[in-house]
Amino acid sequence: MPELRFITSEEDAGERVDSYLSGISDFSRTRIQKLIDEDRILVNGERVKANFRIKGSEEILLTYEEVPPMQILPQQMDLDIVYEDDDLIVINKPKGMVVHPAVGHRDHTLVNGLLYHSKTLSGINGMFRPGIVHRLDKDTSGLLVCAKNDEAHLFLSEQLSDKRCYRSYYALVEGIIPHDEGEINAPIARDKKDRQKMAVSAGGKESLTLFKVLERFADSTLVECELKTGRTHQIRVHMSYIGFPVVNDPKYGRRKLLDDSGQYLHAYKLSFLHPKTQERMTFTTELPDYFKTMIENKRAGNG
Questions:
Q1: For the chain, which domains are there?
Q2: What does pTM read for this prediction?
Q3: pLDDT of 24-38, one tens digit each?
Q4: Nearest-CA neighbor of 100 among 89, 90, 114?
Q5: Which of 52, 262, 265, 279 is the most exposed place for a label (fewest CB within 10 A)?
């Protein structure tokens, strides 16, 4: 009987197991719930209910009868590879690129490009997310690390969980932040009214974001955000929560959208220990051109 194996990360913590699995596989949530009822989904070898909340670092085993209908094909793509060795690849992902295939995004994802580029990728997260250790939203640009083997994947995932992997972002937010720096310590959970969104909730998982003001404009502020935890949409949720949502954010913004290109958020810095050498590796990348143009317009008073 075919099976899929997944390793959850800290970024997945708090999400229901049926929602998590339907989001990273080609199975519908209804199908996932049926498999759970049939004891074909085990978390760390134990039976669970559909409303089981992921904590991070669990192994999920999913068995099924037929081959999933979605085939993940290698596709030649012009990937912006910042660094590569036998264990990992650091990618500078452009805005608009989906990280892994799912319903509605079956091809031209980062995974399709990775499969064409590399003969070896970790298989821990199953056939739909080979090599993917952590994610960036479709319209968030910037750095992410992918694993070429399971050993590297596990080592990198552990760093995400125990906060030895550091990630910093540039964000252009609505409004003028009066103080030069701040700390947002507010738990995040799935939005009860909209399952496609996250929200600050008393019953959510610990979530901590540090921010520092870099430049103020007439109606917006450029900030640097450092993630101390890795919740889904964390920066977008936290900045909106304190009243300064990311500019052009279709989910959490408050003003009329500039266009349909998504939020102005860029993962510019990534730092982690190498799986083999144990040495710290730090990578940075400049703002993409669309972001630079927006900043220049803001400085000129045209944005």
A1: 3-63 (3.10.290.10), 81-162 (3.30.2350.10), 167-267+291-299 (3.30.2350.10)
A2: 0.79
A3: 887 888 889 999 999
A4: 114
A5: 279
